[in-house]
Each structure stands twice: as structure tokens, then as C-alpha cells.
Amino acid sequence: MLLPVLRFTGTGFASGPFSLRDYNERVDLVFHSGKDGTNDMKRRGLAIAFGIIGILACGEIGGSGSAQPATTDKPLLAEQVFKNVQVLKGIPVDDFMETMGIMTAALQFDCSDCHANAGTDKVDWAADTPRKRTARRMVTMVATINKDNFGGRQMVTCWTCHRNRDRPLTTPLMEILYGMPSLEQDDVLVQTPGLPSPQSILDKFIAASGGAQRLAGLTSFEGKGTSVGFGGFGGGGDVTILAKAPDQRATIILFKEETGRGDQIRTYDGRTGWVRTPLNVLGEYQLNGGDLDGARFDAQLSFPGQIKQILTNLRTGPPTAITDLPGPSSQTSLQKEQPTNQSHSVNVVQGTGSRGLLVTLYFDRDSGLLLRELRYGGSPIGRVPTQIDYEDYRDVNGMKFPFHITYAWLDGRDSIVLNEIKTNVPIDETKFGRPAPLKKK
Which one of 2.50.20.10, 2.60.40.1120, 3.40.50.12240, 3.40.50.300 gives the CATH number of domain 198-432? Predict the structure, then answer.
């Protein structure tokens, strides 16, 4: 069977040129995680450890495995890096990686479910398997449904039917029909009448964080502590968070060499972003797609005084309550500071960031402090959620900083606990650029 080559143009799949701006501004629908209706994420550990590279792709690097892409303004596309990419051509490498995350999340698969010998030293990423061929047909099918029925908008996605299962349910369940309804918030919100304006909620956040005048004097900060990744693999690492106004940020997590885990680094220098992920097929890559927009927003949000300038199209969503994001005991047991699992009443503000990035912010209704950031990047098969939870706010030179940060994305979950934060410190500019080569010890 011959499959069409699909290029994503922002409104759907077509044979025309790739448009990164349309891509980021016009994709629809959100994905989360799972396979069989549970929140069991144990099987996803392999996907995180060995790198989600591809139900559709086939992750052999097109060239020397040790070569790294040079910094470039032109996006490095999936088919330029991986072999046997057939239906997801024309998208940046980071968006391709996130697309693989969406698929594994919708079915709760890991690499070994679709790739021959994944998880061993005999893995053949590029080899076709029955499930990879099925996945290609599914992507083509979903794209056709959206094109023919919704004008190319992503109203039907993998998650629409699979919902934590490899095989979608076809029959109503009495437990769901007569049980407690699940209140799932829409990803795109509309202004709710009778609620505080988004501007007033953001003003309260600025005041709670230290006040506009004091925040205007914040030029940089450095935080140090520990971080534990999903599953606790490698044990705890030493983390340093660096930020420099108005839009530079780096998160550097270093693990002991004997663990074999490798370092995890995310950087943004105000223009370009990089990710180094341990035991990933790529290992290190430059951001050009939705992850670049997310990195830019996180860097800007590091300085709360400018929050009203980094979001447009602000609106207040329905009030709700949130609880701490759960984590596996293999992760939470390695840190003394545990999530409280308390419910927090929050005000919800949604806005638009760079290149159409959709961002939802959850502010504690009493204190006004930011408790959660939920942002969505784009991909050819749905929005890609990244969630960052903020807890344990403490006073640092008259300003409030969160000392517990949970950074969760489709391929992992970092629990960061800081023990110190210093403000207005000198920071080497190179820390925000491409991660330095690993030192041989």
C-alpha cells in the first residue's frame, strides 16, 4: 500500500510548503497520557529512558551518530535527521519528538511497542513494523477526517478515540454513566461573565510577588537544589536554575557519572533554545518549533513584573480547583519535600504568547501567587501540553520565589526542590546558549 506524503501547512496536511507560523498559530486539540484507563505510567519509563523517537519515524540518525546540528535559523526537519520518515515530513525535529510523545501518551505505549528491539543494543529504529504501518494509516485517516469535515482544524485526534487505551472503547461503561462525572476543562477558554478581569488577577499576582517597583529591579537570579526525574532513574541530580532579564533562562541538572544517566539541560538565550536529554536517540538538539515558544515564555515568566506584556488576548476562565500533579513513588520517595496534595481554589487566566502559543495560568485565589502554568505547543496531530507547578513560595529580598517546581511534559517529569536563590547576580552569558560539551573524567 502506498501512503501519501503529508506536509503540515497549519490548517491541515497538504503537499504545499511548510509554514511554521501557521503551524504554531492554527493547530487544535489537546493530548494527555495513557492506555488502559488508568494513570499507571510505569510502561512509559522506557520511552523516557531511551527517547521517544518514533511510531512513524524511525529514528536512525541520518549521518554520524556523534554529529550535532549547528545553530541555524532554518528549522532542521525530521526527514533530514531520521531515516524512513514517511507521513510526518516538513516539521522541526523538536515538534517531531513531541508528536511521538503524543502518540505514546494516547496509547500508553513505549518505544518497544512499535520499534524492533527497542530497549536493547540491537534496536533498529528505521525498520518497519506492523504497528508503525498502522500508525501511518491512522495519521492519514485522522487528517482526512479533519480535512473533509472540519476545514482542516484538528477536531479529531488520537486522543479523541484512544483515551489511555491501545484499542478504543466502543461501548458505554455504567461506571462512567452513573459515576461521578469527570470535569475536564476545555483547552481553549472563553471569557466568563461576572468574574474578575484578567488584568486585575495579574495585578494581584504582581503585588503578591513583591510589587511592580521591586520586581522591576530584578535583573537576574540563580537557584540551586536537587532534582529527581520520572521513575527516579539515576537518583537525585544537582540542579541550577539561571535566569537573566528579560528573556534568558537555563535549567541544568547534573547527575553523578556512575549512574550513567547523563546530564539534562534546557537553555534559551533570548533567541535560540537547546535541549540535552540523557539516553535519548538525538541526545541534544536545537529548538525551532513549539518547544522554542515554550522556552521563550518560561524565560520571560521568570520575571513576573512583565507578565502583562508577554501575553495578549487575555481572558478569564471559569474558577476551578487544582491539586498537585501526582508522581510515582519511585520519584517522590527520593525527595523529603513531598507535594501536599491539597486542593487549591484558583483564578484562571488564558492568553496567547509568541507565535500563537496557548498559555493557561492558575493563580491561588487567596494569595494571588501563580500555582500552575499549562502551555500548549503545536504538532501535526494535536496540541502538546507542558505543565509546570509552583509550590513552597518563600521570601527572597522582598520577592516571592517558588522553591518547589514540578516540570512535566509528555516524555517525563522533573521534581525540583531548591534550597537557595540569589538575586541580581552576575551570570555567564554562555550558560544560556548551546550546552557545553560533556567533560571526560
Answer: 2.50.20.10
